[in-house]
Design brief:
Helices cover 80% and strands 0% of the residues. By secondary structure, the chain is mostly helical. It folds into two domains: 38 residues; 61 residues, no CATH class.
Length: 109
């Protein structure tokens, strides 16, 4: 019986030390963070539809150009289709980033 009381006392003592230490550092962190003013960043989801729309249009144009090049040039089908699809998608994304880059700051937030 004395061993159980000693075990409970030791476990209780160290748990209270851990909880008190945790609460001390947790409240200190909360107090410090409450002084920091957080401004919302620019919404990265504002032009998601534009980006995906332009990307898919570029991929579609690339596929069409690949089909035309396949008929016009003696190149393998896989090469022309994959190559022009990547080029079309890349050009669409470049166009998107140039479009968003030129917008005033008030439109991007």
């Amino acid at each position: 019986m004395g061993e159980i009381i000693g075990l409970v006392a030791v476990i209780g003592f160290w748990s209270s030390v851990i909880v008190i230490t945790y609460m001390y550092f947790y409240t200190r962190h909360k107090e410090r963070m409450s002084g920091v003013v957080v401004t919302p960043a620019a919404s990265p989801r504002k032009f998601v539809a534009l980006r995906w729309g332009l990307l898919l249009i570029g991929i579609g144009c690339g596929l069409f150009a690949g089909a035309v090049l396949e008929k016009a040039l003696p190149l393998p089908k896989v090469f022309t289709t994959v190559f022009t699809t990547c080029i079309g998608g890349g050009l669409a994304l470049l166009f998107y980033f140039k479009r968003v880059e030129n917008l005033p700051e008030s439109d991007t937030v």
